[in-house]
Amino acid sequence: MLKVAVLIGSLRQGSYNLQLANTMKERYINKIDFEIADIRSLPFFDQDIELNPPQAVKELLRKIVSADGVLIITPEYNWSVPGVLKNALDWLSRVDKVLIGKPVMTAGVSPGMMGTIRAQLHLREILASPGILAKLLPPAGNEIYISSAGLKFDESTGRLVDESTLRFIDRVVDKFIDFAR
Ligand SMILES: Cc1cc2nc3c(=O)[nH]c(=O)nc-3n(C[C@H](O)[C@H](O)[C@H](O)COP(=O)(O)O)c2cc1C
């Protein structure tokens, strides 16, 4: 079974992006072993300590190394990716450079109409930088950018329930499994 580490760009308890991660974890339980990585405990990136980073960084590095792929699910903050996610990617881009060649797919959820598209475009640029150089699932046909979250998630269960969105994600996930093999 494919092992996929999940980075979530929101620390909020009721995060829609976390809800999407939980939905995918349950829905694809027979296909993918999703493990949500802790990025809350990471300190701010500091080049002075990159050669011997704190435990939380070492754990994240280990998690990424042992994963067959990475799923990044992020909201958009001020037309870009949230600082917590960028900070995590900065840690991962140094010394061992564990994301180079790693299969990555991205997704995002917003309550508004734009479905995180601006953040996703920035994220793609970041993922193409020399220290990261991830093997990104080609975006054409695979853009899981969910708008109007309030209409598509069930407030009581905290899960994505919009059927056509779920079916679209099913197809992208199957493509990612082939892509990551
Ligand atoms: C600092 C900040 C900046 C935001 N900027 C944007 C933005 O640029 N575009 C957008 O669609 N929503 C923006 N939002 C609204 C988020 O999409 C919304 O809070 C969303 O629920 C956050 O994701 P989460 O539910 O996973 O925490 C912003 C929210 C915050 C807190």
From TrEMBL:
GO cellular component annotations of the record: cytosol
Record SUPFAM superfamilies: Flavoproteins (SSF52218)
MF terms (GO), sorted A to Z: FMN binding; oxidoreductase activity
Stretches assigned to the NADPH-dependent FMN reductase-like domain: 3-130
InterPro entries on file: Flavoprotein-like_sf (IPR029039), FMN_Rdtase-like_dom (IPR005025), NAD(P)H-dep_reductase (IPR050712)
Family per similarity comment: Belongs to the azoreductase type 2 family.
UniProt-recorded name of the protein: FMN reductase
